[in-house]
Amino acid sequence: MSIILHMIPSILMMVSPILITAAGGMICERSGVVNIALEGLLQVGAFSAAATHVLLETTCGVFSPWIALLVGAFFGMVFSSIHAYASISLNADQTISGTGINLLSNGVTIFFSQVIFHADRTKPYQVGMMPGPGGIYPTVFIAIAVVLVVWFVLYKLPFGLRLRACGEHPGAAASVGINVVRIRYFAVLASGLLAGLAGGCLVLTETIQYTSNTINGTGFIALAAVSFGRWRPLGISLSSLLFGVAVAFSIYVVNIPALKNALPAEFFSLLPYVITLLALVVFSGKNYAPLAAGKPYEKGAS
What we know:
By secondary structure, this protein is an all-alpha fold. It has twelve helices and no strands. It is globular.
C-alpha cells in the first residue's frame, strides 16, 4: 500500500502531458482534422522548453520553467501551422501530413541541439519544475485547467457548437455562415499549442534534459486516449489516467520484489503500449469519431 501511495504523485505527473496532448488532439479531430503529428509536436515543445530552461536557468531562476513552458507551447503552435496549411489549405492527406511532421520534428530538434549545444541533445539543467505540497507538480493543475477550459468551450459556448459542427458536417455548417476553414485552422493551432505545452510539462518534470528518446511514444498514447475516450473530455481524462498508470507502473515495478522477480523488466516496459493496443482493439468496431474527421473540406461541397 505504501508503494502505491508513493506512486500517486508520479502517476499524476505522467498523466498530465498525456491528458494535455489528448485535449488538443480532441479539439483538432472534433473540427474534422486528424492530427497524428502529436508525437512530433510534443518533441518540438519539449526541445524548445528544455533549451529555453537551460539558457535562462541561471538568470531567471524560478521563473525559468514557466517561461520555458510558454516557449514550448508557442513553438508547438508554430510547427502545427505546417499541418494546418497542408491539410486545410492544400487539402493534403492528413495522415501523410502528420507523418511528415513527426519525421521532420525529430530531425529539426536534433539539428538545433547540434547548433546550440553541439550534441544530439540539450545540456542537462540543474533544477526542473519543483513539486508542491504532497509532491504534486504544478503541471497536474495545468492539465486539469486545460480539460475544464476545453469542456467549457466545446459544450458551453456557441463557438464550440460551431467547431463540432465542422467535424460532423462541414457543408451544412458552411451553409449557415460558419467559416469552416477558419475554425479548422484554430483547432489545429490549438492542438499544436497544447502539445507543445505538454512537451514542456514532460521534459521539465520527468527528466533533466531533452534527447531524441524523451517523448518515446507519448504522442501516440495521447492519440489513442482520444479514440479510447470517445472524443469527449471525461473520456480522454479517464483514458489518459489509465495509460498514465500503466507508464508509472512500468517504471515503479522494480520496487515490487514479487513482480520484479517473476517477469523480466522488458515485459513491464512494454505494458503501456500493450494496454494502448488492447484499448484500440476493444473500440475498433465502434465508430464514435466525428463523421468528417480526416476528410478535406472543399468550399461549395455538400
